[in-house]
Design brief:
Catalytic activity (chain D): 2 a quinol + O2 = 2 a quinone + 2 H2O
Shape of chain C: globular
Number of helices of chain C: 21
Mean pLDDT of chain B: 86
Number of strands of chain B: 0
Pfam families (chain D): COX3 (PF00510)
Strand order of the largest sheet of chain C: 1-2
Helix content of chain C: 55-70%
Order of helices and strands of chain C: HHHHHHHHHHHHHHHHHHEHHEH
Strand content of chain C: under 5%
Oligomer: heterotetramer
Largest sheet of chain B: none
Mean pLDDT of chain C: 92
Structural class of chain B: mainly alpha
Distance between the termini of chain C: 68 Å
Number of strands of chain C: 2
Strand content of chain B: under 5%
Helix content of chain B: over 70%
Shape of chain B: flat
Number of domains of chain B: 2
Enzyme class (chain D): oxidoreductase
Largest sheet of chain C: 2 strands, antiparallel
Bound molecules: heme-A, dinuclear copper ion, copper (II) ion
Subcellular location (chain D): Cell membrane
Low-confidence stretches of chain B: 1-6
Largest interface: A-C, 107 and 102 residues
Organism (chain D): Anoxybacteroides rupiense
Low-confidence stretches of chain C: none
Order of helices and strands of chain B: HHH
Chains: A alpha+beta (300), B mainly alpha (99), C mainly alpha (648), D mainly alpha (204)
Number of helices of chain B: 3
């Protein structure tokens, strides 16, 4: 029995070490590439420290108790009786309160900080994000560009994502740049992110939205300001115009590849306004959103 | 205890309760429609009046505190009102940003 | 509607299920007929109002549902083992995680706990039965038909597929046009009503029917946790009732609560769902804490350390559980103030829970620990649950949760608390109270095999998921591509799941084996127990206690034994015992509920209306029912007591 | 329940005389606690949605104070007469009990009639349960209350029949008492509907 418990107890820390060393490459959350993700990363590390401490204390106590107080031969007349111990109980109420406080303060600070742009001096760039079944549409109102399933951003510039959705809720998540926020129909949520380093970052929907949800990935390409400007120019001059009919076909349930347009759908519709596209056209909407009537989902 | 109840010959308690509830209702009506106060003040007052009137029903008509379970019944009602407030106020607060 | 739409078609898996169901039904009918057991089934089970039998039926249903939910889990793990698997397509995967989550929480964990509480609570407080035996039967049958209704969706009409949380607008008509989500709304409603009635029933039972001398502060800890759980049920389930009703209206009558048009608000669903949903997870964990308390103190042979603090901490947890729900949607944008407040209330729950953990550890300290199977489950709970709990606190940190939300980190958290908490407790309770239910002990050797297989498998399965979450793997993905580095950990997880499956099979075998060869429990007190249920014979006489025991202290039976007498039955003091009569009505009313529900699911309103008339009829008959029950004579009690070796 | 089910305690009102009755009354109180939360959820829903009228009418377009006041007074009075019924019961006057129960029942029926008229009126104006989130939540909240009142009426009829058949017994007395709790409770709910739905709707 004794060995078994030891073996088992050693399993967890061991696997922890293995996992941390072997897979850290892929642990996107632990490899932040921007100030938002960095804030969260610091908070996570801070909390992991306390959690490990708690786990160690409990595990050590547990093991010691189990080994020392097993029933052994010769204990027949041992009649343990004990009611409690107020002092001890105060200790293990007080210490958790302190730990929780130590966790709560930075949490509240970070939570408030993440509502604001990451930099004060630099004017943020605004990008509207529309989640639709099952693709991500990005609109740059100032640049007058619209992209599908990928988004280019300049590094070191705060990006203000304005999120909304046509249909089911989705969640906009780019682990290496920062935590997620929901995109919901008929309303708008705001998420500030920023990249420190040029590179390509995986983004995906984190909230289940139906059949094609698994494939709702997008790429965030962080570029230097110069490259970004170049891309904007190029897109503005070479990309086709988005027409309303084209836009409707994009909205149809299904998967699409990447696209770029030199205007945005915001010109004629803003899904974040309640009922902007629904009033009186519920049937139309039902037709659009009903997966059975759409062209079906294309899955590899 | 409700035991004293059966010795009474005239339902004083009920009549007083009824008159009070009418009075409270009409005050609420006047406050809402004719007082001309600010919306906040009106809402505050009429909600308070409603709570008063609910308490009135519970004590005057429903004999909440009687029987050997009176305490449990009272705690139960108070707690359910607490949860009710949490649900109503909480929901409004949480979704305020979209309302 | 065409028949081809009515029955789910076109899937080998489902045809296999069809065949299995038909064969099982034929098999059951055949066996019952062949052995002439119909009358027995009706008299002894379908019409029973005995809390012990109702409890057994709850547990049997729960184990069946554990099997169903477990098969779902294994199917999901099979699909996720390798990248780009073609085993399940998206539609099927979506249905499977939805039914897995719903069944495991509502039709496995809850009824398992309710089953144990049915069997144990009246015994622990020295009562003859619950406050409302008839209602208790109705509660069970409502739960049961709700569960059956939910399960047949698999072969008739199609399963719900919007997740156990069924967020709108996805769960609305626009995006889920089939009947699957109607099943969700209606089946949960029916069994939820049953649960609410159970809550009221047991609250009154515990408050009013305790043996003389058993003050609140002398109640066994399990009974305490049930008392508080009932409070949670009573105040949380009405919220679910309303949420599901609104969902039903939206889906069947085109109302606009959660729709995207005309002012509807999908966030409101999430809000209502979690106002119920968070207390719900404590509804399944508090009784588990109670079970662990009983088992730990019995096998450490010590009184529970810090009994009072244990009581206050459950009250504290229950209170807090109603003011934390927003932590399930920190990412919906309610703002920093809202998130901060709910962050702090959530983290606060760590404090009373920690008190409990340390009190258990100190109950063990200086004890005389015996490692029975029930004890192993309870011991394993402590370290495993702490892992789940502290990662819960990490989730509670709003700003950090933006990174964990809906990722496998979350999946790992809640399986750690649900399995190491609730499932371990159910297994501990099952092994511990098994002799009370069936009169024999579950084989310890097989029990330990189950334990080690399941417990190790559990860690292998879910520990890697924390890291999958940090790697960016989100929940509810039916597949993933190569090159993300997720494959090895997913393989590991699936291996763990298989181990758990094997553990479960060993458990089932153990039930069969012990029924045939298991050690009979002649004393009624096989574990040298501390609370009153061990003062009865095993299995328990249908009237429970021949005379009502008098309670002088916490751990009443332990005190009786220590004073040298045990629980003696003085034949002179026996009086006739009043018992409630059996009734077939709860069962029949519930069948009517089934048809009403089925009618609603398919919008066959004529069926729903006819069935509702039957329900009303049943209730009216009940109202005019003058049955006062019957008395068991002193002679019969004497005979029973002597047979069980308890009488003088 | 046990033997105690037949222990009489002469000092108590009839409805509390048996253990079974005491358990049932307490259970019903607890059920009412659950009902409070049920209605609170409906109120929360209504208050979150009532300004989301879509393209449909708003509160001030619809509500008319006269109808509402009639309903309110009918229900308030019925709660009073229901109290009188229990008062008569405690004085052991069957005829008084039956009379006041009947009056209560009629007032309740009057309330329901006016409510149905009100609903029909709204529907004629194009305000149906499907029109907007506001109206869905309005009809479901007020309708749930109305359904409770209708159920209460049916229940009272059953009890009147039983009283006529069996006269005063601990069982019938308990049933009267419980239905009276239910009835008063519905009045409590109505007070909040009156305040938070109608008055608030006319103010905003
Ligand atoms: C039995 C079920 C159960 C239990 C007991 C818990 C317990 C806890 N849960 Fe969990 N939870 C779930 C079931 C459960 N949860 C489920 C099913 C979901 C997901 C639903 C879904 O989305 O599908 C979920 C999701 C969930 C979320 C949402 C995350 C998200 O969606 O992004 C959060 C966030 O705060 C959370 C937090 C907590 C906390 C703080 C506790 C605490 O109660 C834990 C307290 C325990 C301890 C902390 C350990 C012991 C304490 C000590 C040793 C003392 C010292 C410790 C400290 C000072 C930290 N849970
Ligand atoms: C008490 C609750 C409970 C329990 C016990 C479990 C048990 C298990 N769960 Fe569960 N799970 C949930 C509650 C629970 N789960 C919830 C609420 C969700 C969220 C759903 C949602 O997103 O909506 C979820 C989601 C969930 C997922 C995520 C799916 C996704 O998001 O894509 C996964 C993935 O691995 C998983 C796995 C498992 C496994 C392997 C087990 C194992 O412990 C199971 C053990 C196995 C058995 C007991 C098998 C027994 C059967 C056999 C041995 C028979 C073999 C025979 C044949 C195959 C014919 N669960
Ligand atoms: Cu918005 Cu469909
Ligand atoms: Cu929670």
């Amino acid at each position: 029995m004794k060995q078994k418990i030891w073996k088992w107890a050693s399993l967890l820390p061991l696997s922890l070490v293995l996992l941390l060393s072997g897979c850290s490459e892929n642990m996107l959350v632990m490899r932040p590439k921007g100030p938002v993700a960095k804030t969260q990363y610091d908070l996570i590390l801070w909390s992991i420290g306390f959690m490990l401490l708690i786990i160690v204390v409990v595990f050590v106590l547990f093991t010691v108790v189990l080994i020392r107080y097993r029933e052994k031969p010769g204990m027949e007349n041992y009649e343990p009786e004990e009611e409690g111990n107020t002092l001890l109980e105060i200790v293990w109420t007080a210490i958790p309160i302190l730990i929780v406080t130590a966790l709560a303060i930075p949490t509240v600070k970070a939570t408030f900080a993440l509502e604001k742009p990451t930099k004060e001096k630099v004017e943020p760039i605004t990008i509207h994000v529309t989640a639709a079944n099952w693709k991500w549409i990005f609109s740059y109102p100032d640049q007058n560009i619209e992209t599908v399933n990928y988004v280019n951003i300049p590094v070191d510039v705060p990006v203000k994502f304005k999120l909304t959705s046509v249909g089911p809720m989705n969640s906009f998540w780019v682990p290496q740049l920062g935590g997620q926020k929901y995109a919901m129909d008929g309303m708008e949520t705001e998420l500030f992110l920023e990249a420190d380093e040029p590179g390509s970052y995986m983004g995906r929907s984190a909230n289940f939205s139906g059949e094609g949800f698994t494939h709702m990935e997008f790429e965030v390409v962080a570029q230097t300001q110069k490259e970004f400007n170049k891309w904007v120019k190029e897109a503005q001059s070479t990309a086709p115009k988005l027409s309303e009919t084209k836009y409707e076909t994009i909205l149809k349930p299904g998967l699409v590849g990447r696209m770029t347009f030199s205007n945005t759908h915001l010109e004629w519709i803003d899904h974040s306004k309640q009922n902007s596209h629904h009033a009186g056209e519920a049937d139309e909407q039902a037709r659009l959103c009903n997966p059975l009537e759409g062209n079906g989902i294309v899955v590899e | 205890m409700g035991a004293n109840h059966h010795h009474e010959t005239f339902p004083w308690k009920h009549i007083v309760g009824f008159i009070l509830s009418l009075v409270l209702t009409f005050i609420a009506l006047w406050v809402a429609l004719s007082s001309g106060w600010t919306i906040k003040a009106i809402l505050g007052v009429i909600v308070t009046l409603a709570v008063l009137q609910a308490a009135l029903q519970l004590f005057m008509f429903m004999h909440m505190t009687e029987s050997d379970s009176g305490r449990v019944q009272t705690i139960n009602m108070l707690y359910s009102f607490f949860i009710a407030v949490v649900v109503v106020a909480g929901s409004i607060w949480v979704m305020w940003f979209v309302l | 509607m065409k028949w081809s739409e009515f029955f789910v078609t076109g899937e080998p898996l489902i045809y296999a299920a069809d065949v299995a169901i038909v064969l099982t039904v034929i098999g059951i009918v055949f066996v019952l007929t062949y052995f002439k057991k119909w009358k027995w089934l009706w008299d002894e089970w379908l019409t029973t109002v005995d809390h012990k039998k109702i409890g057994v039926m709850y547990i049997i249903s729960a184990v069946l549902m554990l099997f169903r939910g477990g098969v779902d889990a294994l199917l999901m793990r099979a699909q996720l083992t390798a990248p780009n698997m073609k085993f399940l397509n998206s539609e099927h995967y979506n249905e499977i995680f939805t039914t897995h989550g719903t069944i495991m929480i509502l039709f496995m964990a809850m009824p398992f706990i309710i089953g144990l509480m049915n069997i144990v609570v009246p015994l622990q407080i020295g009562a003859r039965d619950v406050a409302y035996p008839y209602l208790n039967a109705l509660s069970f049958w409502l739960f049961f038909v709700g569960a059956m209704l939910f399960n047949i969706s698999f072969v008739i009409g199609g399963s719900p597929n919007a997740g156990w949380t069924s967020y709108f607008p996805l769960a609305g008509n626009e995006f889920s046009p089939g009947v699957g989500n109607n099943y969700y709304a209606v089946a949960l409603q029916i069994s939820g009503i049953g649960t609410l009635m159970t809550g009221i029933n047991f609250l009154v039972t515990i408050l009013k029917m305790r043996a003389p001398g058993m003050t609140l502060m002398r109640m066994p800890m399990f009974t305490w946790t049930i008392l508080i759980t009932c409070v949670l049920i009573i105040f949380a389930f009405p919220v679910l009732t309303v949420a599901l009703a609104l969902m039903t209206f939206d889906r069947l009558f085109d109302t606009q609560f959660f729709t995207m048009a005309n002012g509807g608000m999908s966030m409101l669903w999430a809000n209502l769902f979690w106002i119920w949903g968070h207390p719900e997870v404590y509804i399944v964990i508090l009784p588990s804490f109670g079970i662990f308390s009983e088992v730990v103190s019995t096998f450490a042979r010590k009184r529970l350390f810090g009994y009072k603090a244990m009581v206050y901490s459950i009250v504290g947890i229950a209170f807090l559980s109603f003011i934390v729900w927003v932590h399930h949607f920190f990412t919906m944008g309610a703002g920093a103030a809202v998130n901060s407040v709910f962050s702090i209330t959530t983290m606060a729950i760590a404090v009373p829970t920690g008190v409990k953990i340390f009190n258990w550890l100190f109950t063990l300290r200086k004890g005389k620990i015996r490692f029975t199977t029930a004890m192993l489950w309870s011991l394993a709970f402590i370290p495993n649950f702490v892992i789940g709990g502290v990662t819960g606190v990490m989730l509670a940190m709003a700003a950090a949760d933006y990174q964990y939300h809906n990722s496998y980190f979350l999946i790992a958290h809640f399986h750690y608390v649900l399995i190491a908490g609730t499932v371990f407790a159910c297994f501990a309770g099952l092994h511990y109270w098994y002799p009370k239910m069936f009169g024999h002990i579950l084989n310890e050797r097989l029990g330990k095999w189950t334990f080690w297989l399941f417990m190790i498998g559990f860690n292998i399965c879910f520990f890697p998921m924390y890291f999958l979450g940090l790697m960016g793997m989100t929940r509810r993905m039916y597949t993933y591509s190569e090159g993300l580095g997720w494959t090895p950990l997913n393989v590991v997880a699936s291996v763990g799941a298989v181990l758990m499956g094997i553990g479960f099979i060993v458990l089932c075998y153990n039930i069969y084996y012990s029924a045939r060869y298991g050690e009979r429990d002649m004393t009624g007190d096989p574990w040298d127990g501390r609370t009153l249920e061990w003062a009865t014979s095993s299995p328990v006489a249908h009237y429970n206690f021949a005379i009502t025991p008098e309670v002088k202290d916490l751990d009443a039976y332990w005190e009786m034994k220590k004073s040298g007498k045990g629980f003696e039955i003085d034949e002179e003091k026996l009086k006739p015992i009043h018992m409630p009569s059996n009734s077939g009505r709860p069962f029949l009313i519930s069948i009517a509920f089934f048809f009403a529900g089925f009618g609603l699911v398919f919008k066959w309103f004529w069926l729903a209306i006819i069935a509702t008339i039957f329900i009303a009829l049943g209730l009216i008959l009940r109202s005019f029912d003058d049955d006062d029950g019957y008395y068991i004579s002193v002679d019969e009690i004497k005979r029973t007591e002597r047979l069980s070796g308890k009488g003088a | 329940m046990a033997e105690a089910a037949h222990q009489y305690d002469e000092t108590m009102p009839l409805e509390y005389r048996t253990e079974e009755s005491r358990l049932n009354i307490l259970g019903f109180w607890i059920f009412l606690g659950a009902e409070v939360v049920l209605f609170a959820t409906l109120f929360a829903t209504y208050l979150v949605l009532f300004q989301r009228t879509g393209s449909g009418p708003t509160t001030s377009d619809l509500f008319e104070i006269k109808d509402v006041m009639i309903e309110t007074l009918l229900l308030l009075t019925s709660s009073f007469t229901c109290g009188l019924a229990v008062f008569e019961m405690r004085r052991r006057r069957l005829s008084g009990l039956l009379t006041w129960l009947l009056v209560t029942l009629l007032l309740g029926a009057g309330f329901i009639t006016f409510e149905i008229r009100e609903f029909i009126h709204y529907v004629h104006e194009g305000a149906t349960i499907q029109t907007s989130a506001f109206l869905s939540s309005f009809f479901v909240l007020v309708g749930t209350h109305g359904a409770h009142v209708s159920l209460g009426i049916c229940w009272m009829i059953l009890i009147i029949i039983q009283l006529l058949q069996r006269g005063f017994t601990p069982r019938t007395a308990r049933k009267v008492f419980i239905v009276s709790l239910y009835w008063h409770f519905l009045d409590v709910v109505w007070i909040f509907i009156f305040t938070l739905v109608y008055l608030t709707g006319m103010v905003m």
